[in-house]
Amino acid sequence: MKRYFNIILSVILILAFASCGKKKIPEGTEKDLFVIGFSQVGSESDWRLANTESMVQTFKNENGYELIVENAKQQQDNQLSAIRNFILEDVDLIIIAPTIEEGWDTVLNEVHDAGIPVIIIDRSVNVWNKDLFLTNIGSDFFEQGSRAISWLEENDDSSPGNRLKILHLQGTLGATAQIQRTKALEDAMKEHPNWTMVSQLYGDFTEAKAYEVMTEYLKKSRDIDVIYSENDNMTFGAMRALDEAGITYGEGGQVKIITFDATKKALQYCLDGKINLCVECNPMHGPYVLDLIEKYRAGEAIPKQVYVEESVFTKDDLTQDFINSRGY
Ligand code: GYE
For 141-281+314-324, CATH number? Predict the structure, then answer.
């Protein structure tokens, strides 16, 4: 009796393990799912949530994909362990949205040795061997910064002999979005002797951090003409701090606000005259990544760098209908 019991138990265990395999067969098809491990930066901003959603909506089971999303909570170490787990799980492809640019050589070599292809999205990685990833899809962050600078050049209304006082809110240090947006501003500072940087504050791309640093800053000084904020959520935090300090901003206000991302909420503030310029950063990467993966799987060549389409918005470019129809 015990022998029969053991045999039945073994069969149950084998069936249980077999059903835990990574490749589930979608109902009604005989085809295996293509399994993708996606190491996402975190959920620090509205942009990030829209980016994750775009990936989830694109890589669905009914399209032949299984997407495993790992949220790194803005910690590179979390990404490294998620990626090593993806290797153990033997996924078909790994997508990484890297927190920062440095520190990827070792883990990407491990992925390479395991024979798993890698796609980098959003920000970039700085590795010696560029063959460690297939392609990098994201924004041209320096171009975004340059667009902001062009607008500021055209809207610099500081009177002759007076300086234009710029406060810079920075995102996660070492992230491509921070490095390049900062570079565009710092380069421009050198070319405009009448522009002065009153402070660079670290906001880590989050509303809470930006609110905190701005509140502290405004206790010491209120003399600001422009806020150059490297993402919408930091902008929202800064706006709250300005409100509490009784400082006006936006159209006709003391402080001009430039923000990056152009998510729905920021566009609404722009239409309402509270934000002067929204520099768009397109988070809808899903369709771009899908296209490249399909090409790769079909054995076609794919470009090493792909930039998504984006533009800039002032109040004059916006209508309520346009904002309502936006996906993010
Ligand atoms: O601007 C910010 C997010 O890397 C483009 O990260 C992304 C940036 C985006 O947290 O909102």
Answer: 3.40.50.2300
